[in-house]
Amino acid sequence: IDEAMANQATRIDVTIHAHGTLEVVDDGRGIPVDRHATGKSALEVIMTVLHAGGKFGGGGYKVSGGLHGVGVSVVNALSSEMRVEVLRDGKRHVQEFVRGAPTGPVKQTGGVAEANRALDPAWKRIHGTRTIFRPDPEMFETLDFSWDMISTRMRESAYLNKGLWIHLRDERTDTEKNFFFQGGVTSFVRHLNRRRDVLNNRPIYVERLVGSTSVEVALQYNDAFAENVLAFANNIHTVDGGTHVAGFRAALTTSLNTWSRKSGTLSEKEANLSGDDVREGLTAVISVKLTDPQFEGQTKAKLGNADIKGIVQNVVTEGIVQHLEENPADGRRIIEKCLTAARAREAARKARDLVIRKGALEGMALPGKLADCQERDPARSELYIVEGDSAGGSAKQGRDRRFQAILPMFGKMLNVEKARLDRVLSSDKIRPLVIALGAGIGETFDIGKLRYHRICLLSDADVDGAHITTLLLTFFYRHMPQVIENGYLYLCQPPLYRVSTGKVTRYAATEKARDAAIKELSRDGKTKNVTVQRFKGLGEMNADQLWETTMNPDTRTLLRVEVVEGTEASTDDIFSTLMGEKVEPRRDFIRGEARKVRNLDI
């Protein structure tokens, strides 16, 4: 990717091999193989020495996508085997490594034909690098490459480097994809909004080089309510934002207010639009490329270069104003949406204040259905959000009241993907939950005030239960994302079957586990004394069974809900697809995934 950013590579092929290795081939300049100052080949130094690549000391790449400058040498160190082939000046140079150490010196063997073996014949590669590695089983618990994560990263890289062609192939499933987007970040925004109705058909696009810093931004409004802004610095997804995002936000608010006043769309009597107002329904991609990025935080997910804020703000402000002056109809539609958002936000503020006031007047606000726990330390407290009254009753009886609280939820809650915050807060199913958690909602949410650090969603193992869980997941993802980010949200895994004989009982969550339990409890292969009970709902379990299978920390199974790094865009997309207004994307998704279903409950 660094070669592509330096305009030295046009294609990258990535192959996940069936035998557990991963191969990357590019048509860049090829890693240097000449003698280094250490007396070794430059290739060997780059592959074995930290910070030996082209990212440090002001040399090499002007712009690089590395965080630490240790990428390829660390991959080598964490691989049980690695092979690197370099094609330069018509010659193929090869070196192999075992657990980071070279097995011998660089060898010159063959030329272009040997270097391009098994590649696309149409790819007339005359220089570049081919790397094949196998993750070391002594270093990793899981050695299975994730197609979803790799394909998401490859798609993003192709969007962020317009004109770069990335071919991804998985031999395990005989799946392949090509990623090539001449439109760059504009194509990225169109992709993110492809399942939504948009206000400005042509995304607002800004691209400029200021000194050595490249700024590229595309934005488009849709008819939904969530903000979806993806920010990148040197192709690295800065999920925690940074100065480039701060500059973009300041530019967006300033430019929309400036244009709306100048055009008369916003009257003198009306207050300026706030940042929250102008970001409702916004989809944007921000990409900056700079020579010396400073990343902050332990995860290096926030850009800290102070000068970038002003650069981005000036470039984006000028670009937005120019677009709106040339496309006033777009401007009027955008401002009207912002004004509607402002009115809804004021209504939401009043509703939120009512929730807070109501809480203060009702003895610290805890809803009547909540069976609270005795523990007051959030880190030791659990809240079970339970579907149905009967299940809630069993959960209240079976729980350990010292640290487990129960909040029953009756019927299906509001789909927040289709509702503004004022309507969300007026919901009689959501309001008690917000009050019970005690941390506010939306922009006023304060993770430090959260009353429970383990929030467990417990619903029936059927279609209705899954729908309720999905509605709750949508609520937390859209209005309390910090709960997911901090690892506080869990899915309970109640068993589907009870297998027993005499005084011996086994519980099973799958048919395979059920069959294994039947086999274990059978005498001499005979199953006539073995009884199997299929739980149709949580209400069928008594308090002891619910405790033993689902609530006892020693025997239960909980799945932590998390957004895997690198899948933020696809995660947002799936919520919009499954829970949004448009039917066609949901129908297409179901058709595409239906063949993967093995156990359908209808």
Brief sketch in words of this structure:
This protein is α+β, with helices and mostly antiparallel strands. The protein is built from 19 helices and 24 strands.
Describe the structure.
With 602 residues, this protein is of the alpha+beta class. Among the domains are: 2-179, Heat Shock Protein 90 (2-Layer Sandwich); 185-344, Ribosomal Protein S5, domain 2 (2-Layer Sandwich). The radius of gyration is 28 Å and the shape is globular. 37% of the residues are buried.
Helix fraction?
Answer: 25-40%
CATH architect. name of the domain at 2-179: 2-Layer Sandwich
Q: Which structural class fits the helix and strand makeup?
A: alpha+beta
Looking at CATH, which topology of the domain at 2-179 would you report? Heat Shock Protein 90
**CATH H-level superfamily of the domain at 2-179:** Histidine kinase-like ATPase, C-terminal domain
Provide keyphrases for this structure.
Ribosomal Protein S5, domain 2, globular, 35% helix, five-stranded mixed beta sheet, alpha+beta, 602 residues, nine-stranded mixed beta sheet, Heat Shock Protein 90
Topology, pairings included?
Layout: H1 2-5, E1 11-16, E2 22-26, H2 42-48, H3 71-77, E3 79-88, E4 91-98, E5 101-102, E6 107-111, H4 112-115, E7 128-135, H5 147-160, E8 165-170, E9 175-179, H6 185-192, E10 204-210, E11 213-221, E12 228-233, E13 236-237, H7 243-263, H8 275-279, E14 282-289, E15 295-296, E16 302-303, H9 306-326, H10 328-361, E17 382-387, H11 389-398, E18 404-409, H12 421-425, H13 430-437, E19 454-458, H14 463-479, H15 481-485, E20 489-492, E21 497-501, E22 504-508, H16 511-521, E23 531-534, H17 543-551, E24 558-560, H18 568-579, H19 583-593
Parallel strand pairs: 1-8, 12-14, 17-18, 17-19, 19-20
Antiparallel strand pairs: 1-2, 2-7, 3-4, 3-7, 4-5, 4-6, 8-9, 10-11, 11-14, 12-13, 15-16, 20-24, 21-22, 21-23
